[in-house]
Amino acid sequence: xxxxxxxxxxxxxxxxxxxxxxxxxxxxxxxxxxxxxxxxxxxxxxxxxxxxxxxxxxxxxxxxxxxxxxxxxxxxxxxxxxxxxxxxxxxxxxxxxxxxxxxxxxxxxxxxxxxxxxxxxxxxxxxxxxxxxxxxxxxxxxxxxxxxxxxxxxxxxxxxxxxxxxxxxxxxxxxxxxxxxxxxxxxxxxxxxxxxxxxxxxxxxxxxxxxxxxxxxxxxxxxxxxxxxxxxxxxxxxxxxxxxxxxxxxxxxxxxxxxxxxxxxxxxxxxxxxxxxxx
Length: 279
Prior knowledge:
By secondary structure, this protein is of the alpha+beta class. The protein has 3 domains: 2-74; 90-172, no CATH class; 176-276, D-amino Acid Aminotransferase, Chain A, domain 1 (2-Layer Sandwich), CATH 3.30.470. The protein has helices at residues 21-30, 61-66, 83-86, 112-117, 122-132, 160-163, 221-230, 261-271; strands at residues 2-7, 34-39, 49-52, 73-74, 90-91, 101-105, 151-152, 168-172, 176-178, 181-190, 193-201, 213-216, 234-242, 245-252. Strands 9, 10, 11, 12, 13 and 14 form a 6-stranded antiparallel beta sheet that branches. A hairpin with a 2-residue loop joins β10 (181-190) and β11. The protein is globular. The two termini are 13 Å apart.
């Protein structure tokens, strides 16, 4: 089987990122498949399977056009993963929600991939930095640190400029707790293969890199319906069980696991065979 992994033209340092993609590539090659990693659209694409791995919130149309003739394309239908497309708990005004809220970017991962791959002028980067550090009002920011999204006690406390900023979004903050700790659940999948893990941390925004512990859990059936609705072949859904049900926090079609080589290898080993399950 000939497999082409297609990266964004500016993603020249992708090998240095702990993408789950890379241990999967190693598994495919070890199984005897030919894998070509192509950066950008400078060469025609001819393959049995194209693994579309463009690490942006919205896949640029030229990349979709370039693989239109390929019958089997991973995540062909997942064009836009912006928060506005996936949130079920958006807050639209200062009087709407009396409980805690969190301010995020509409772009995935705080907008960092767009900043890295599409570039941003010096003045824009300076403005974002000043806003994130509190030296300018939060409403001026176009991207935020995804490890430190601002949390407010209610929607009334959100700075006024945030509501009119098209780059930002306000959501209800609905944490899952285990005693004094906060929880995060992550469901990673490719085809019919998947891993679902629960992490706990002392921090309200739980990240795997600073979790105190983790365990395997069963993903709730509701997520299968969301996956089908969004068209995902491969990716990772972050969620919690709170407010009487499943709260989807984030979806990602180019997940990374850079802080633990052993756990990254486990992800690749479990998920890699799923490439041949359902395409």
